[in-house]
Specification:
Blueprint (H helix, E strand, L loop, with lengths): L2 H13 L4 H11 L2 H7 L9 H10 L7 H10 L1 H10 L10 H8 L6 E6 L13 E4 L2 E3 L5 E3 L1 E3 L10 E8 L8 H9 L6 H16 L3 E4 L6 H5 L7 E7 L7 H12 L4 E6 L19 E5 L2 E6 L5 E4 L2
Parallel strand pairs: 1-6, 1-8, 2-4, 5-12, 6-7, 8-9
Antiparallel strand pairs: 2-3, 9-10, 10-11, 11-12
Helix pairs in contact: 1-2, 4-8
Length: about 300
Amino acid sequence: MTTASRYVEFALREARGVSPTYERLSLAISADEKILALLETVPDPKRQPNLLLGVVRLLGGPVDDPAAFHDFTVANWSAVEAELRTRATQTNEVGRCALLLPVLAGLPQPLALLEVGAAAGLGLYPDRYTYRYGEHELGSGGPVLDCALTGTTPPARLPEVVWRAGLDLNPLQVTAPADVAWLEALIWPEHHHRRDRLRAAAAVAAADPPTLIRGDLADDLLGLAAQAPAGATLVVFHTSVLYQVPAARRAAFLDLVRDLPGHWISVEAPDVVTHAGLPPAPDDALHNVLALDGRPLAWTRGHGQAMTWFA
């Protein structure tokens, strides 16, 4: 896939109907020969739309006008390039906990949670958030996470979590203003509700910080998993992370996680973690697949806003 086509796909399959600002801007970038040429100077994984748009916003650049975005990015390319090379997309979207909850609630309790690609660890508190699946509400603290759930009944309980830990190449701290600024820059411009719930989730995490380990998902997974307490069900999970991992490292991780005791939950694009015999997706938008121990269960939207359970 070319860089230009990547921005077209992002505009039409991810931003359309979700962020008019990013849809318009990504289509403009796909036809902007100067910016495309600049992007070709950084490694392929660093050219992704979410990363470029987040970096420009972090640096104070405009995203609401393609011409102004072009001028800022070209004039400040040295700073943009430096951030692209050192940062990764760490969209610590707590809304994805609404996708995990139906699975977590059905596992043997209590749980020991280990998140791969944890960023600031906000996904490690599914027991402390409030959920709305249509008219069904569950929980009483933290941010409210709305999810349109079809094909199954909403969960009836929150999980009992007795241990939580995260693994990340560059873990973030919710008590560090610079780290929170990066998390906020990754939230799409119109999504004020996501920014509000990020701040509410950050308050939950700051009150009881998780264990966050700087490490590689394959090299350091077994050592961290071994720290989970006896008597708790180990659950290793990851959401929209593996697309950033080179294919060989991804394969090594998948081989490891399949053989761990406990359970493994993945929420990844169907071309990243593959499954045979998937039913058609609900529509042409980009969907991920929720899977438990390698068994696909549902189509999910990227920010946890909707989930369609398989028959």
